[in-house]
Amino acid sequence: MYSKAQTDIRSLTRAELGDRLTAAGFPAYAAAEIFRWIYRKRVEDFGRMTNISRPHRAHLADNYYFSTLEKARRFRSADGTEKYLFRLADGPAIETVLIPEGKRRTLCVSSQVGCRFACRFCCSGRSGWKRDLTAGEIVGQVLSAESPATNLVFMGMGEPLDNLDRVLKAIEIISDPAGIGLGRRKICLSTCGLVQPLKKLIALSPSFKIALSLHSTDEKVRAGLMPVSGKNPLSQLVQVLESWTRKNPGALTLEYLMLAGTNTAPEDAHRLSRLARRLRAKVNLIPCHATGSGFDPPPPVEQRHFRDELVGRGIFATLRRSRGEDISAACGQLGLSALKPS
Ligand code: SAH
């Protein structure tokens, strides 16, 4: 057990750790050495960090600890997708999904326990928000995946912009070349669209990718699907994003859930292509997954037709193949296994 006075060492960026350690009399390179032990050699015991002096190892053990994510369950889909259910130290569970595809292994991480925003088609928000994850718990998901991820998406449970500071810290730690060293362009933050934190993020000119969960270009239809958009209108989100996408063409993806009878008319495709062009964005079409929400995907021919409409207008659009649906690991399904008795 650890005491309150101790700090989870995996929740600190290298700069933060370095500041603390130099103040405690460590040499300047100590933080980089410790990052190598933790993130490359995966050592969770300060006693084994043999190139750190004995008194300094004792200082580390007295002042720092390693947060634990207990892998309570592991699910494997017929398509190779894996889902991990982690039990956090204070009890609640989160889910992380690893999706292999060719040479890529995309890890989909959670940023919160539950979610405040209750999009009508998604089950992660159904039982509300419980708490934010710490940076260490986000980093821990990356370390606990059974094979190293080549790509990272914040598309698991929770809303990353609602826990922005910790998410940014986690991204800094995960992309640090002294540690895991995952390239920022391999990282994507997906958001339902919160104007204020989005402004704050864009002001930092992020070098990772952003995905906006759009789902409709019509403010009224969007508000009907996503209550969050009432106070966070699309017009404002677009304004904030435009300044960034002008300098970073292709860095934004518009995620578009296809919902039968709701958002897949030809006029929707036209408006979506105009917006994608304005934001220099790719479009990722996602057939709605079953979450017991009452929404259904349109038939596959209609899905392809909608995609072809966009492609015909010069938009880079992909139709996402659903992965891991048999283990409730697909988009919008996270939280189902935690809720369902097994
Ligand atoms: N809160 C963030 C990230 C988590 S959701 C966000 O909203 O972007 C990740 C993606 O899954 C989002 O695009 C979300 O809209 C989508 N999603 C939610 N429910 C879904 C469902 N039933 N079928 C398919 N995708 C869904």
How are the secondary structure elements laid out?
Elements: E1 7-8, H1 14-23, H2 30-40, H3 54-63, E2 64-65, E3 69-76, E4 82-88, E5 93-101, E6 104-108, E7 112-114, E8 129-132, H4 135-144, E9 151-154, H5 164-175, E10 187-191, H6 195-203, E11 209-213, H7 219-225, H8 234-247, E12 252-258, H9 266-278, E13 282-287, H10 300-312, E14 317-319, H11 336-339
The site of S-adenosyl-L-homocysteine has 17 residues, from strand 10 and strand 12.
Please give a structural write-up.
This protein starts with 6 loop residues before the first strand and ends with a helix. By secondary structure, the protein is of the alpha/beta class. Helix 1 crosses helix 2, helix 4 packs across helix 5 and helix 9 crosses helix 10. It folds into two domains: 52 residues, Orthogonal Bundle (DNA polymerase, domain 1), CATH 1.10.150; 258 residues, Alpha-Beta Barrel (TIM Barrel). The protein is elongated, with a radius of gyration of 21 Å. The model has no long low-confidence stretch (mean pLDDT 93). Strands 3-4-5-6-9-10-11-12-13-14 form a ten-stranded mixed beta sheet, covered by helices on one side. Strands 1-2 form a two-stranded parallel ribbon. The protein contains eleven helices and 14 strands.
